Amino acid sequence: MRISFGDGRVLVWGVPVLAEAGALARSVVFAWAIGADELGRAMILALALRMVEMATDVGVERFILQAPDGDTKGMQAGLQGVAIMRGGVAALVILALSPCLAWVFDDGPTTASFAALALCPLLNGFAHLDYRRAQRHFRYGQMALAEAGATLAMLVGLVPAIAVLGNHRAMAAVLIIQVGTRMVLSHLVAKRQYEVQFCTKTLLRSWHFGAPLILNAGLLFLAFYADRLIVAEAYDWATLALYGVAMQLAILPAQIVGRAAVSLVLPTLRMALEEGRLSAVWPRILVTHMVLAAAMVVGFTLLAPTMIDLVYGSELRPSLWLTFALAIAAASIILRTPYSQLSITTGRTGDPARANMVRVITVGLAGSFALAGLPLEAIAIAAAAGEVGATLRAVHLVGLARPLEKRVMI
């Protein structure tokens, strides 16, 4: 059977799958090459970078898809200026936090290891946004080349980085390789000449659009990663590796769905809203995500323990209850994805943050469980309860905002 790339759906799903498979392969190589303890320290480096990225993300990539004038050269140049500023701020934040992070995890990565991560947002700030703009027209070839090429470069550099550095520091090296490659490829695949404008009007529009997303990103960090920081502080590095591997596998399908939704669902909803067809396309999108969520619960619960045992080794095999709780959490994230994209489409960028506030409550619950010495399953149950609550809140917010057709875009 011949595979057609005409409508881009193969790329929309294939590129996120490749990216998450690359991250999974990276953790497998680390587990076998440097052991569970060093894998735990490597995970802390990746978590630190993700924390700063999410805390400074004003949604430039989503705004160029959502804004009515996002296709214009002026808006693209202005957003590329915003991206540079955001990258510089994020780099400075990492440098400032590095000594603090090294102090908190006293037997973890050094200040220099954390500080090296500052190169990632700095390089990412100079990426060309043209491949993001192309997604407005459902063209995904440029995105595929940039994202897939970066993932492959990371995988190629993985073994040499481990061979040279020999421990968790290799994580910082491969992350820099990945981001740097994506930045270079974004310029090579671009159709437009790279232009940068530092425009106050665009900056203010980006801030108006992205400020609620920054709050939501902070809440998402708590939802996705704070429990791993709790495990790192309350348990040992090997326990963090076990929990981190199980969580990474559970969140992987949700992240694939989320990335595909930005490329496919967000432009679809924007076009449907402009044409007055939003209520017609919404049920199909929602049912699709419901099916994916149900498949996640059944498939991950039954397959994950054996899969992790075979791939990572028996030392990192999770219990059935742990995988079930994490499957519920990930399925809830999948089900919440279309509601988040609908909020962004209609300009209600604060709704995802309002929904994720529910998740924050259970982070404190997970911390109290860890202090009480309860097993990892209790922390996973707290995570699942928070994600279910956040999804129910997202559904409630959509109900409050009806009728959908009357929402106003920014």
In short:
The protein has 410 residues and is an all-alpha fold. The protein has helices at residues 9-55, 60-66, 73-104, 111-116, 119-124, 130-133, 141-165, 169-188, 200-234, 237-275, 278-312, 320-345, 351-371, 376-400.
Describe the structure.
With 410 residues, this protein is mostly helical. It folds into two domains: 1-198, no CATH class; 215-410, no CATH class. The protein is built from 14 helices and no strands. The chain has helices at residues 9-55, 60-66, 73-104, 111-116, 119-124, 130-133, 141-165, 169-188, 200-234, 237-275, 278-312, 320-345, 351-371, 376-400. The longest helix has 47 residues, at 9-55. The N and C termini lie far apart (43 Å). Residues 1-7 and 403-410 have low confidence and may be disordered.
Structural class comes to mainly alpha
Q: What's the pLDDT, averaged over the residues?
A: 82
Cα-based radius of gyration, to the nearest Å = 21 Å
- Whole-number tally of structural domains: 2
SSE topology string:
HHHHHHHHHHHHHH
What spatial form do the alpha-carbon principal axes imply?
globular
Bin the strand percentage. under 5%
**Biggest sheet, in brief?**
none
The tally of helices reads: 14
Oligomer kind: single chain
In total, how many beta strands? 0
Q: Low-confidence parts lasting 5 or more residues at pLDDT below 50? A: 1-7, 403-410
Helix content: over 70%
Tell me the span between the first and last alpha carbons.
43 Å
